[in-house]
Amino acid sequence: MFSRIIALSKPFNFQEKNVMIAFDYTYWDFYGDTNSPWIRGWTGENGIKGKFYFLTASMVKSDFRLPLISIPSTVLDTTAGEIISIMNILKGYFKNIDLLLLDRWFYSKEIIMSLNSISNYLIFVRKDSGIKRELESMEMGEKKIKLHEFSMYRDGKRITAYIAFLKKIFDHKTEEYYDWAFATNLKEVNLDEIIGKYKIRWRIENM
Question: What pLDDT, on the 0 to 100 scale, is given for residue 207?
Fold first, then answer.
């Protein structure tokens, strides 16, 4: 299937262009015995005993979204390992993977450590107590970026990422103000464009 998608995209010459890849988890409901590493347990509501999880990578542009590959995720797998497996495949087809876009559920030091060495990334950051404190100290409309060092990893490696903070930014679609935080390894970040770039990944789970 992946080879078929690549063949269909050849007329657009995507293999030679800078591309952005968005990652997201999708799932299928399961109603039977959940005693399997392929099935994640669920609440049992509406008879749903578990779910099959899949990690999906899609090529995204502002007006274009193309699912490329989806792999099953077991309870024995790590998200970082799954991303690396998919990236190893994608790098065989695309010469220039410009940026990876990931939502808040991918924000962890294990994933950041893995991505720091393989690709540029932009991750929407969960607003934990530390992120909230930083945002609360900022003025309305203020934007800044800081280098953040995570706690030492188990093998002693230092893990760093830039965290961009944006306080009470007006959204023209909803006409509301929102706080934002992103993790990235990009050394040069346009804080006026970072929200729009991240939003390119939105709704990929509904494709």
Answer: 45
The larger pLDDT score, comparing residue 14 to residue 28, is at 28
Instruction: Supply the range of the domain harboring residue 92.
Output: 2-206
The CATH number linked to 48 is 3.90.350.10
Count of structural domains, the chain? 1
Q: Write out pLDDT tens, residues 126-144.
A: 999 999 999 999 999 999 9
d(Cα 199, Cα 201) in Å, to the nearest integer?
A: 5
Supply the mean pLDDT for the chain: 88
Q: Which of 86-100, 151-165, 167-181, 189-203 has the lowest average pLDDT?
A: 151-165
Predicted TM-score (pTM) of the model is: 0.86
